[in-house]
Amino acid sequence: MGRANDDTPTEGMLALSRLPFYNFGTLNIEGGTFKTTCKVGGAIVWNNPGATLNITGGTFDASFTAIVNQGEATISGVTLKSSSSNRDDGTHYSYAIICEGNNSKMTIKSGTYQGIQGCIASRDLSEIIIEDGTFSTVNTPGARDAWHAVYSSTKGKFLIKDGKFSTPTENTGEQGYCVT
Predict the structure, then answer these.
(1) Angle 139-63-125 from CA coordinates, rounded to 5°
(2) DSSP 76-104
(3) Cβ(120)–Cβ(94) under 8 Å?
(4) Are 131 and 159 in contact (CB under 8 A)?
(5) CB 3.0–4.6 Å: which of 81, 90, 139, 146 could bond 114 by disulfide?
(6) In the predicted structure, residue 13 carries a pLDDT above the cut 90
(7) Side-chain half-sphere of 168: how many Cα atoms within 13 Å?
(8) pLDDT value at position 78?
């Protein structure tokens, strides 16, 4: 789709290998169904530094990452999941949502978010504010591969005001911490 500049996709189905939305401007998504199939990289929405992303409603089904935010993002009423697992090929796996980079900020107001490798991560001096929502990880059927529902690293920050957070009790090693 290329660069977005105040584009507002509405209702419909969009399925691509990866990177249907690569935003450098302002991107508003109001509903719709979005799916990716590439298991070794990319995202459904990649919000670049300095860009603004607003998502209200919609279904996001990612084979790798659903949303990467390096700018400013506000998300509400979304159903989102990622099927990425460290069992895919042992090298390429990701969280469902990643906020990264100095001064990047994401606010999640509501919705249902699910990952296998992980649900939501804040890293590299980014900040995520969770006002409400359901955040979980699940095991791939027959496996024990679920990791963290909420993960912060390299000075990433979370402010959690409300919400529900869960991860399976059936895991191995250090996996399965709900919030780290």
Answers:
(1) 85
(2) ESEEEEE---TTTTSS----SEEEESTT-
(3) no
(4) no
(5) 81
(6) no
(7) 21
(8) 98
Res. 173 pLDDT band, cuts 50 70 90: very low
**Residue ranges of the alpha helices (H) in 3-91?**
none
Which residue in 3, 107, 104, 2 sits closest to 54, CA to CA? 107
Q: One-letter amino acid identity for 67?
A: I
> Residue 72 has which token pair?
């400013």
Closest to 99 measured CA to CA, from 45, 40, 136, 161: 45
Whether residue 101 is predicted with pLDDT greater than 90 in this model: the reply is yes
Examine the pLDDT at 96 and tell me if it is beyond 60: yes
Q: Which residues neighbour 144 within 8 Å (Cβ) at sequence distance 6 or greater? A: 168, 170, 171, 172, 175
Residues 121-162: pLDDT tens digits? 999 999 999 999 999 999 988 888 888 899 999 999 999 999
